[in-house]
Amino acid sequence: MSDSVLYTVDAGVATVTLNRPDAMNALDTPTKVQLRDTILAAADDPAVRVVVLTGTGRAFCVGQDLKEHIGLLQANDQAALWSTVPDHFAPIALALAEMPKPVIAAINGVAAGAGASMAFACDFRVVADTAGFNLAFTGIALSCDTGISWTLPRLIGHAKALELLYFPRTVPAAESLDLGLATSVVPAADLETAVAELAAKLAAGPTVAYGAVRQSLGYSASHTLAEALVFEAGKMQETGATEDHHNAVESFVAKQKPTFTGR
């Protein structure tokens, strides 16, 4: 097993860490495979109530490993070049965006290309004040991937998304917050603490309800109001059957603070 992706679970918080600091956490094929499989495992693990995605070193993730990519171009290995999008990048984006539990991106450094795309698929982006985003795809004459065509316009609007994708530049943390790319910006020295506090709050919450809310928002983005209402009704029934709902109602009546178990 490669150590290019690290994985820990503690008190309901799963931390997935990209660990290729010398390559700015660029995604070569072994790393993409391990990242995909790790995120899918976290999504399916009932002991995990929130997922944190981050990187080691000075970058969050700079996207595709271009050294590997150049080798595949020179070898004219078309299958390996482009199968990575449906085989790796797409499953990663779907798992981050649709798993039934909250996901936090802890942006410790630059998030570029697919690295930015992965961050945008998360619920929260806690960004170090020294970090930033670069939507680098057209800078190497490629289209965009890893779900950014879906997530980015929903975060900042169609026109601004086009601008940032057409004319890649590093958007610094403060501007990222103003645009809506970042959920919050904290001093770099405080990033770990800020993320830990948010993760602990989410891990102590009603996990099934959180999952239902994020899935409802995702569903409504591509369906009619009438269809969204039907989907909402199903999720209300699903969450209404949980122990957390029943205990929370009893706690409310008793004027006590509820304790959520995620079930």
What descriptive keywords fit this protein?
263 residues; alpha/beta; 2-enoyl-CoA Hydratase, Chain A, domain 1; 2 domains; six-stranded mixed β-sheet; four-stranded mixed β-sheet; 10 strands
How would you describe what is shown here?
The chain has 263 residues and is α/β, with parallel strands linked by helices. The chain folds into 2 domains: 5-204, 2-enoyl-CoA Hydratase, Chain A, domain 1 (Alpha-Beta Complex); 207-254, no CATH class. Helix content is 50%, strand content 16%. The protein is built from 11 helices and 10 strands. It has helices spanning 29-44, 66-74, 78-98, 114-120, 148-156, 158-166, 173-179, 191-203, 207-220, 225-240, 243-253, and strands at 5-10, 13-18, 50-55, 59-61, 103-107, 110-112, 124-128, 132-134, 170-172, 184-186. The strands form 2 sheets. A 6-stranded mixed sheet has the order 1-2-3-5-7-10, sandwiched between helices. A 4-stranded mixed sheet has the order 4-6-8-9. Helix 1 (29-44) links the parallel strand 2 and strand 3 (50-55). The longest helix has 21 residues, at 78-98. The chain is globular and about 65 Å long. 40% of the residues are buried. The model has no long low-confidence stretch (mean pLDDT 95). This is Enoyl-CoA hydratase. GO terms for molecular function: catalytic activity. InterPro entries: ClpP/crotonase-like_dom_sf, Enoyl-CoA_hydra/iso, Enoyl-CoA_hydra_C. Belongs to the enoyl-CoA hydratase/isomerase family.
